[in-house]
Every structure is written in C-alpha cells, then in structure tokens.
Amino acid sequence: MSGEGKTVCVTGASGFIASWLVKLLLQRGYTVRASVRDPSDQKKTDHLLALDGAKERLRLFKANLLEEGSFDSVVDGCEGVFHTASPFFITPSDPQAELIEPALNGTLNVLGSCAKNPTVKRVVLTSSVAAVAYNGRPRTSDVIIDETWFSDPESCKENKLWYQLSKTLAEDAAWKFAKENGIDMVAINPAMVIGPLLQPTLNTSSAAILNLINGSQTYPNASFGWINVKDVANAHIQAYEIPSANGRYCLVERVAHYSEVVNILHKLYPSFQLPEKSADDKPFMPTYQVSREKAKTLGIDFISLEEGLKETVESLTEKKFFGM
Ligand SMILES: NC(=O)c1ccc[n+]([C@@H]2O[C@H](COP(=O)([O-])OP(=O)(O)OC[C@H]3O[C@@H](n4cnc5c(N)ncnc54)[C@H](OP(=O)(O)O)[C@@H]3O)[C@@H](O)[C@H]2O)c1
C-alpha cells in the first residue's frame, strides 16, 4: 500500500470531498490527521470514525480557518497536507465574513503552519473551476478552458460571484505564499462535484441535484462542468503521490446545461417528477469545454455524468433527503 508508514493531514475532513479523501487515504494505508471545526458534533465525525482503518490510523483535531495557528498541531509531523476546508455556499449575507475571510485567511493559516513544519513535502490545495473560468472571456461551445485560465477578481466582484471570488483570491494567495516560502504545492480545480455522500449532512453541490428531483418546477438556466467525488479524491492523492505532478489540474468529466442533467435524470428515473422548463426566458446558457488532458496524466478515468447522477440520487435516497 502506497501510504503505509506515512502521515498526512486533511483539513475540513467532515465535508463532502474531504470525507472521501480520508476514506481513500486510509484505504491506501496512510495515517491521517484530520481537522474538523467541532469534534464534539457527532454529525461531523461519526462517519469518519466508522471508516475502515480509522480506529488504527485516523486522529481528529479541532481547528478553525479563522484562527491563526489553529492548524499547527494538525500539520505537525505530516509529510503531506491536503487543504480542503473552505466554505461552499452561494448566497452569503456577508460575503466578506462568511466566504472570503475563511477561504483566504484560512488558506494562509494552513500554509503558515506548513511553512513552520519541515516534515511537509507537498501541499495539495483544493481549489475549484470557480478560480479558473470566471474572467469575463466568453464561454461558448468552441471555447476550451484549461489550466492557463485564471478567474478575474474584478469580474467576480462586478457580477457578485462571491464564492468564485473567495476561491480565486485563496488560490492566488496560496501560489504567492508557496513560492515565497519554498512550499511544493499542487492545486486541484474541480467543477461541480457529485456522487455518493459519506457524510450525513447536505452539501451545496449535492443540493443542486436534490433541488431538481424534489418537486421544483424549473431548472436553473446554467451550464456547469460536472465531476464525480471519487475522481476528485483520487486526483488529490495522485497529485500528492506522483513526484512530477505540478501546477493546477482542472477536473471536469463534461460540461452540461441543467436541461441536459434533467434529461439524463428522466432517462434514469422515468417516474420522477422533474422540472420541465428553465427558470428564465433567456436563451440557454451555452456549454463550453474544459480540457481533460492534464488530469489524465494523474490517471483519472472520469466516471460518467450519468453514473455520477445515479450515485447521487441513490445516496440522497439512502440518506433520507429524498423519497420520504
Ligand atoms: N462540491 C463542489 O462542487 C466543489 C467544487 C470545487 C471545489 N470545491 C471545494 O472543495 C472543498 C470542499 O467542499 P465540499 O463540497 O466538500 O463542501 P463541504 O461539504 O461544505 O465542506 C466544506 C468543509 O469546510 C469546512 N469549513 C468551512 N468553514 C470553516 C472554518 N471557518 N473553519 C474550519 N473549517 C471550515 C467545513 O467544516 P464544517 O463541516 O464544520 O462546516 C467542511 O468540512 C472546498 O474548498 C470547496 O471550495 C467543491
């Protein structure tokens, strides 16, 4: 097993992506130090403590992105750091306090702990397509977005895209800090993540699918890239383990408008009541392409959107978010 005898840490371990990351790291034999905001909240910890290998090789730590030095003890003695914690929701009442400060200052806090710790060999940052694709350039069917694209903070501000702004500022600051402090960092930039939930709470990207099957009359007039959570977690570990991995990796199985997502759901579940019209009368937002070339060098096979949607619906049903 590739991780045997090695200690790594995962921030925000109770979240959707990080829970999968912890599961796969334990499967590969790693010892995992994992941070959660509130270790006394069983909704955030029970599913982690129940993972195979957790009893022997998982240790939970309390840490908050907003507290300087909070991650020192988590990172202590780790060879690899997976920084995944960051708030992901779309309609903050105070964007600065709720999204930007935890994303930006939190990333610098975690990297600050890494800089103090000579055992750390590589940091894998969970960034997002949110930090790639929002730069005001048109996104149409002939456009191929790749790792050379960077979202533009001014464009995000103008369009009140606060989550995108938080991820853009955080990734940018992370690259600067890593360069100045000699930290070997790799960024993973996934699009909308779907697939089975390990945690008992509902995260934002899974809620996007729940909203379609839960009786809504309309679907959003939007096109997003979609990617399976198992591919995302695997890409993080590959980015850590493959010595030549570097820079950023966009992760998108394919870009699809919500109308196409609804069509796939209809084929999979003909009896479901699904929305039949777009939320506005404007032309459909075009789809675009996101290059998969660099991600393929991490050995990612890309689980299909169809499979991901099926897994998401089954998981939402099993967790009783749907069908009761
Ligand atoms: N899901 C997607 O579609 C997607 C796509 C691209 C990138 N990402 C990125 O992937 C990462 C994880 O997202 P996710 O989808 O797994 O979301 P999630 O389930 O909501 O997980 C977010 C994690 O961040 C933690 N967190 C938030 N604020 C914190 C704070 N002040 N201090 C400490 N921890 C804090 C949360 O802790 P609590 O559980 O205590 O709230 C949670 O563990 C984020 O960096 C997100 O930007 C997600």
Can you tell me about this structure?
- There is one protein chain.
- With 324 residues, the chain is of the alpha/beta class.
- The protein has a domain of 224 residues: NAD(P)-binding Rossmann-like Domain (Rossmann fold, 3-Layer(aba) Sandwich).
- 39% of the residues lie in helices and 18% in strands.
- It has a 7-stranded parallel sheet with strand order 3-2-1-4-5-7-11, sandwiched between helices.
- α1 crosses α9 and α10 crosses α12.
- The radius of gyration is 19 Å and the shape is globular.
- The chain starts with 6 loop residues before the first strand and ends in a 6-residue tail after the last helix.
- The site of NADP nicotinamide-adenine-dinucleotide phosphate has 25 residues, from α1 and β8.
- NADP nicotinamide-adenine-dinucleotide phosphate binds next to α1 and β8.
- Belongs to the NAD(P)-dependent epimerase/dehydratase family. Dihydroflavonol-4-reductase subfamily.
- Pathway: Pigment biosynthesis; anthocyanin biosynthesis.
- Keywords: Flavonoid biosynthesis, NADP, Oxidoreductase.
- Its EC number is 1.1.1.219, 1.1.1.234.
Descriptive tags:
324 residues; alpha/beta; Rossmann fold; seven-stranded parallel beta sheet; 14 strands; 39% helix; globular; binds NADP nicotinamide-adenine-dinucleotide phosphate; NAD(P)-bd_dom_sf
Topology:
Elements: E1 7-11, H1 16-27, E2 31-36, H2 42-49, H3 54-57, E3 58-62, H4 72-75, E4 80-83, H5 95-115, E5 122-126, E6 144-145, H6 153-158, H7 162-181, E7 185-190, E8 192-194, H8 204-213, E9 218-219, E10 223-228, H9 229-241, E11 247-251, E12 254-257, H10 258-268, E13 277-278, E14 289-290, H11 293-296, H12 305-318
Parallel strand pairs: 1-2, 1-4, 2-3, 4-5, 5-7, 6-14, 7-11, 8-10, 9-13
Antiparallel strand pairs: 10-12
Helix pairs in contact: 1-9, 5-7, 8-12, 10-12
The protein binds NADP nicotinamide-adenine-dinucleotide phosphate.
